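Intended use. Records like the one below are meant for learning the mapping from a protein sequence to its folded structure. Do not use them to infer anything beyond what is encoded.
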Amino acid sequence: MSGPVCALNLFDISDRDEYLAYSRRSVQEVERHGGRVVALGRLVDSVAGDVEGREVLILVEWSSREAFDGYVSDPALTDLHRHRELGTSRYVWQLFDRLDDLRPLLTK
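Structure written out for the chain above:
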C-alpha cells in the first residue's frame, strides 16, 4: 500500500443543480473510501502560474492511492461522478504524495 496522497481539485461550476446533486453525497462517499476534505476555497485572485484560475478549490487527503482509485472506480458511484462531470467545467484533478516537509525534493 502507498502512503497518503492529496488530491487537488480546481474547477468552475457550470451547472449548479448538477453540482449540488454531487455535493449532497460526495463527502460521505469520500470518507467511506478513505478520504477527508482538508480545504475548500473560492478563487480570490490569480497571482501567478501557468494554469488559468478556477472558481473552486477542494483539497482532499486520501489514505492511499488505492483508496483514491477505489473511489473513482467504484461502480456504485457512477451516477455520483456523472453529477460532478455535468456540474463542473475546466476540471483540474492532480494527485500529490503527502509530505511532512520538502527535504525529499531538495536532496539528491
